[in-house]
């Protein structure tokens, strides 16, 4: 059910929706919806998989207003955690939330991609409900078209692969494309699959942007081959 909007404010609300849906370079999901501890089963898996590292370096890509970062902090009390989001207002909200925590291991950056991040640095990267576009599912679109292009998805994934240390973990949940269709996937092994009830209803498209009928893709966690330092 949509929230009630007074008649006088509907033109403004419609304009804001159009602005959000307008393609912006580097932006995938136009909606910043998030929740605290949204994927507990995935975070728990990551905590167990990284238990041997006392202070694993973590990246939350598309961190929105910080719920994911602060949920990770509960499981990784000593980890340096970095949040990146394309929306500067979201980053401002993250910084405001972090004030008073006396936690200098949290950092936030407004950026459209991981281009400025160091190579081979992170032990885990979380990109959850980011590499997708909600309007594709709402419209039941048969082509991803200009809203989501496979080339942009693959470019983002290539960036994650570059930033991950050997043996590092990549978590991709709720995407409109399959990680296995990317060239980068050849350097990874799948280590975590979601159950059907842990998946969103977002549509799945192939490399050419064509709808995959009844498409479901359950692998969500991947380990980069190699031995970490």
What does this structure look like?
- Helix content is 27%, strand content 19%.
- The model is unreliable at 12-24 (pLDDT under 50).
- The protein starts with 9 loop residues before the first helix and ends in a 5-residue tail after the last strand.
- The protein is α/β, with parallel strands linked by helices.
Write the layout of secondary structure elements.
Layout: H1 10-21, H2 40-49, E1 58-61, H3 67-75, E2 81-85, H4 88-98, E3 106-110, E4 122-128, H5 134-139, H6 150-163, E5 164-173, E6 188-193, E7 219-224
Parallel strand pairs: 1-2, 1-4, 2-3, 4-5
Antiparallel strand pairs: 5-7, 6-7
Mean pLDDT rating: 89
CATH superfamily: Vaccinia Virus protein VP39
Strand content: 15-25%
What is the molecular shape? globular
Order of helices and strands: HHEHEHEEHHEEE
Structural class: alpha/beta
InterPro entries: SAM-dependent_MTases_sf
GO molecular function: methyltransferase activity
Organism: Gluconacetobacter asukensis
Protein name: Methyltransferase domain-containing protein
């Amino acid at each position: 059910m949509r929230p009630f909007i007074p008649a006088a404010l509907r033109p403004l609300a419609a304009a804001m929706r159009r602005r959000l849906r307008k393609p912006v370079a580097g932006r995938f999901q136009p909606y910043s919806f998030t929740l605290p501890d949204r994927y507990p089963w995935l975070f728990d898996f990551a905590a167990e998989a990284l238990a041997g590292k006392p202070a694993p370096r973590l990246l939350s890509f598309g961190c929105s207003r910080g719920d994911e970062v602060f949920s990770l902090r509960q499981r990784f009390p000593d980890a340096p955690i970095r949040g990146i989001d394309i929306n500067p207002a979201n980053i401002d909200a993250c910084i405001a939330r972090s004030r008073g925590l006396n936690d200098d291991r949290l950092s936030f950056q407004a950026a459209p991609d991981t281009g400025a991040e160091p190579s081979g640095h992170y032990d885990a990267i979380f990109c959850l409900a980011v590499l997708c576009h909600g309007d594709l599912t709402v419209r039941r679109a048969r082509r991803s078209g200009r809203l989501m292009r496979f080339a942009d998805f693959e470019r983002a994934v290539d960036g994650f692969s570059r930033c991950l240390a050997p043996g590092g973990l990549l978590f991709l949940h709720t995407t409109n494309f399959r990680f296995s269709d990317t060239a980068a996937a050849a350097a990874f092994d799948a280590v975590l699959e979601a159950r059907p009830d842990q998946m969103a209803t977002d549509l799945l498209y192939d490399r050419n942007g064509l709808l995959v009928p009844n498409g479901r893709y359950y692998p969500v966690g991947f380990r980069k081959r190699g031995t970490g330092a």
